[in-house]
Design brief:
This protein is mainly beta. It is built from one helix and three strands. A three-stranded antiparallel β-sheet has the order 1-2-3. The longest helix is centred in the first third of the chain and has 6 residues. It starts with a strand and ends in a 16-residue tail after the last strand.
């Protein structure tokens, strides 16, 4: 799908107006957890946009690992 891109927005008003799209999802820092974002798909050749859809962003804490104690037999 090289002719499509996904645009993300912080508010439904921005998504409806197609303004203030946030960067790529890989560079976004959430402001609360969980957070609601809005997404639209844009056809890069025609500029046509899909209707906005709700995206729920939830960041889980990294697991904490502990090393087991050495067993002495």
């Amino acid at each position: 799908m090289e002719d499509r891109e996904v645009l993300y927005y912080q508010t439904i008003a921005d998504a409806d107006a197609n303004t203030n799209a946030i960067g790529t999802p890989n560079s976004y820092t959430n402001t609360m957890n969980p957070q609601t974002l809005y997404a639209r798909v844009r056809h890069t050749l025609t500029g046509c946009l899909s209707d906005p859809v709700v995206v729920k962003l939830q960041v889980n804490a990294l697991p904490v690992f502990t090393l087991p104690e050495d067993d002495i037999l």
